[in-house]
Amino acid sequence: MKWAVVGFYFLAVLHIHFRGKVRLPFARQLFDHSSFMAPINFFMHLFSRVPSTPYIPVREFAELAPLQANWQLIRAEAENLIALNKIKAAEQNDDAGFNSFFKTGWKRFYLKWYDASHPSAARLCPRTHALLQSIPTVKAAMFAELPPGAKLNPHRDPFAGSMRYHLGLATPNDDRCFIEVDGERHSWRDGQGVVFDETYIHWAVNGSDSDRIILFCDIERPMRYRWMSAINRWLGRTMMTAASSPNETGDQTGLVSKLFRISHFMGQYRRRYKAWNGTAYKLTKLALIVALAGFIYWL
């Protein structure tokens, strides 16, 4: 039985790794967060009602039409947040989902995050917040800023229960500012939306001289069966809500993000150890992985 579970897990990781044309190095994929979620994502992909392609036509998500129609209203509220300096990086290392994005200047302001509470969004962006609340399939949303020169490295998102929607608000309207999903490139334009599958390898860069502001949403992945949609919603309520991060005091911080704050603090010592002796660091990491695998097998 144990070997069957291990075998299924490994096959699920291979499914994630070989999905698409662009792949991470296999050693990295083995320990990537998307591999930990591989068994769940295998079933998400298996029962998905959308095609297995990097991009999906926006027209397939008719419920997003009010966002597209009101993009100028949404942009006005985003620009007001910029003037107030509210679109920013996490101040207390309590954003488990997007912490690595902050390194080159990426910033965000949460408008909605699954079942988490963000009173700041309703107060500072009432019209955008109301629009998003009126669309049940929009599970998460934020304003996301990518300044000139910023880059997000190639990665997969860990949870396949959603699709990603980007709506251009204040963009460079320049092909040097783009996102690439499984080797296919899209350049943002004001008032234009795009839907893609974030479980393919994707990365982004702003090589222009202007800032880029978009509305960034997670849209519930359409499933073939109601029971699978119910499972997907339950996973979102439990796992994804736990990763919520605040804009400011009074917003909800999920358990995963609280634990990440502690992990980030401990990581400072890990990085010092790695800088002191890279070989010893690699051997220690390998030993811990082997010990963990042995413990799991023993159970």
3D architecture notes:
This protein is an alpha+beta fold. The protein has a domain of 199 residues: Jelly Rolls (Sandwich), CATH 2.60.120.330. Helices cover 41% and strands 20% of the residues. It contains 11 helices and 10 strands. It starts with a helix and ends with a helix. It comes from Massilia jejuensis. Belongs to the aspartyl/asparaginyl beta-hydroxylase family.
Sum up the structure in keywords.
single chain; 299 residues; Jelly Rolls; six-stranded antiparallel sheet; 11 helices
Helices and strands in order:
Layout (H helix, E strand, L loop, with lengths): L1 H16 L8 H5 L2 H4 L1 H9 L8 E2 L8 H5 L1 H13 L23 E7 L5 H6 L1 H8 L4 E9 L4 E5 L6 E9 L6 E5 L2 E4 L5 E4 L5 E5 L5 E9 L5 H15 L14 H22 L1 H21 L1
Antiparallel strand pairs: 1-8, 2-3, 3-10, 4-9, 5-8, 5-10, 6-7, 6-9
Short description:
By secondary structure, the protein is of the alpha+beta class. It has helices at residues 2-17, 26-30, 33-36, 38-46, 65-69, 71-83, 119-124, 126-133, 226-240, 255-276, 278-298; strands at 55-56, 107-113, 138-146, 151-155, 162-170, 177-181, 184-187, 193-196, 202-206, 212-220. Helix 10 (255-276) packs across helix 11 (278-298).
